[in-house]
Amino acid sequence: MTVIELDDIYKTYTESVVPVHAVNGVSVGIDKGEFTAIVGPSGCGKTTLLNMIGGLDAPTKGKIRIEGEDISRLSDKQLVDFRLHNIGFVFQAYNLIPVLTVRENIRFIMELEHRDSKEMQQRVEYLLEKLDMKDKLNVRPKYLSGGQQQRVAVARALASHPKFVLADEPTANLDSHATEVLLELMATMNKEEEMTFIFSTHDQRVMDKARRIITLEDGKVVGDAKTGI
Amino acid sequence: MIVSIAWRNVWRNKVRSLVVIAAIALGLWGGIFSYAFMQGMTGQQTYSSIHTETGHLQLNSPKFLLNYDLHVNVANADEVQKEIATMPGVLGVSSSIQLTSIASTAYASAGTMVTGVDTANFRTVSELDKYLVKGDFLGRGRSNQVLIGQQLAEKLHAGIHSRLVFTLQSYSGEITYSAFKVVGIYKLHNSEFNERMVFVRKSDLQKIIGFPAGSASAINVLLDNDEATAVTEAELKNKFPELQVQSWQELSPMLQLMSGTIDQMSFIFVFIILLALAFGIVNTMLMAVMDRTRELGVLLCIGMNRAKVFRMIVLETIFLSFTGAVVGLLLSIVTVSYFGTRGIDLSLIADGINALGFSSHVYPKLDFGFYPKFAAMVIIISLFSSFFPARRATRLNPAEAVRQE
Ligand SMILES: Nc1ncnc2c1ncn2[C@@H]1O[C@H](COP(=O)(O)OP(=O)(O)O)[C@@H](O)[C@H]1O
Ligand SMILES: [Mg+2]
Prior knowledge:
The structure holds 2 protein chains of 2 kinds.
Chain A: E1 2-13, E2 20-31, E3 35-39, H1 46-53, E4 61-66, E5 69-70, H2 76-86, E6 87-90, H3 102-112, H4 117-131, H5 146-159, E7 164-168, H6 176-193, E8 196-201, H7 204-207, E9 212-217, E10 220-226
Helix pairs in contact in A: 3-4, 3-5, 4-5, 5-6
Chain B: H1 2-10, H2 14-54, E1 57-60, H3 64-67, H4 77-85, E2 90-104, E3 109-117, H5 119-125, E4 132-135, E5 145-149, H6 150-156, E6 163-169, E7 175-186, H7 191-196, E8 197-201, H8 202-209, E9 218-223, H9 229-239, E10 244-247, H10 248-251, H11 253-291, H12 293-302, H13 306-342, E11 344-345, H14 350-355, E12 361-362, H15 370-394, H16 398-403
Parallel strand pairs in B: 3-8, 5-7
Antiparallel strand pairs in B: 1-9, 1-10, 2-3, 2-6, 2-9, 4-7, 5-8, 6-7, 11-12
Helix pairs in contact in B: 1-13, 2-11, 2-13, 11-15, 13-15
Bound molecules: adenosine-5'-diphosphate and magnesium ion (MG).
């Protein structure tokens, strides 16, 4: 079942002197439960594309339908709610709220959604188990390694059971071991919880774990293939 | 949750926050302390004016105060005095004969107001005997004793036992000269009073000028508390409709005016200090918001709405300001109560201050009711200063904000 439909999407930044055509006519469909990588060199439009899927940025032209709903029709306020309830974000770095502990960071989105406190408690316990970070429960992010921080960020994104997880170069700042651990976590959660994962990368090791690879170049899709994993 | 995030955010940049907190605390303390100082000053002045000069209330015949005519008197003063003494809340009543006179020594002469008092009664309304710098209060012994003020003594080159000759107009209109011996010299904080007011025994004065027995020029009343003045004033007016009854506020209008003005000025003063601090708060919070552009961007991306971000920054500003306010208020309470019992000695500049009728030893004083008012002012100011940084935070574009390093 196709849950994300990009229909001839364009994005042109006009703030600069020369307009930048960051995304140039992308049409892609993403099915439920996919584990898809968007790959391509720096500046090819990966971040821009993910931002548009996540409702952070509006396309200059074209339609984005999430579960059949055209998100360009949503108001700014509705978009915030849409993101809160449907999408988990993981950014390249500095995802976490520095003044909150690991536990509080993981709970954060559930708190915004006013979830039942017992449910939150259980969910946090469960995720910490998966992260293998039970001893870091009450530690603030600055005392964690980069890999640990990214794992907590993934846990936060997943905690409220969003339909989609969008991760923009989540391993860009990690060494190979931390990269492997993080991808392992993402892959496990993708299987267990049947969430749709889309992540961008230009790291070969990360591409190797994806089940589908969409290749961008100058804002255009130049390759789209299942890897058979 | 937003509350706890906001509180923790205040302490992220400790130095920056502490500087603002210290500025608010010191600013508030400066404002409050100087207010308490001026309050103490006028409060003492009011007290000493009531307790040495006027009492809480004065009764006299209408128009007596226009030119101190001996014939414009309270004929039945003794009866009036007795009746007032039985009223509730009355601590003391004293009647006096007052007339203007020239006092002379071999060196100089000066215009004075001679007040003849009954020593025992006078002491129930006046603490003048506490302000003697030389000699004694009017005593029983020999006749024609006089108590004069320090400034008059200096002007006339008079000391204890000096002879002063008073030029007096008798009740029947003749001019008489009468010699008095100085038994004591007093010094109030009011130099004008010291220079003009002299006190003699009523019985002596009666004999010399032939003033009718049982009568008086004025009757002064001391009450057990200042607040009862208005009520007692009304009662007295009711009881003695033929007499003029005036409160200490009416007798010393400057006092009233001064303490009112100081109240207003102090609030404006504190407000200006806080307004200046507001710019510091705005600046600090704008810096805090700009430093955290990326983090705020992440919050907006993952689903924190703009209203919550706005509230968070407002709360941060309030916490920051309020911490400063609490420190400032505590500092004020401690110092005001410490110096309120110890007093602050201003004798170095005392001459100028005394000329204005102020004591050189000031006991700062502030009603506890004022502290919440100042606290409220800080809240209002910090709400006002939180607006700009908070609005700035909500105007961030989340997609752009997270792109920043
Ligand atoms: N706010 C912006 N204004 C102008 N140009 C931008 C802006 N954001 C991104 N771009 C440009 O758009 C292009 C695509 O950027 P981006 O989506 O970040 O690529 P990637 O994530 O693949 O590195 C780049 O050329 C970048 O410089
Ligand atoms: Mg990018």
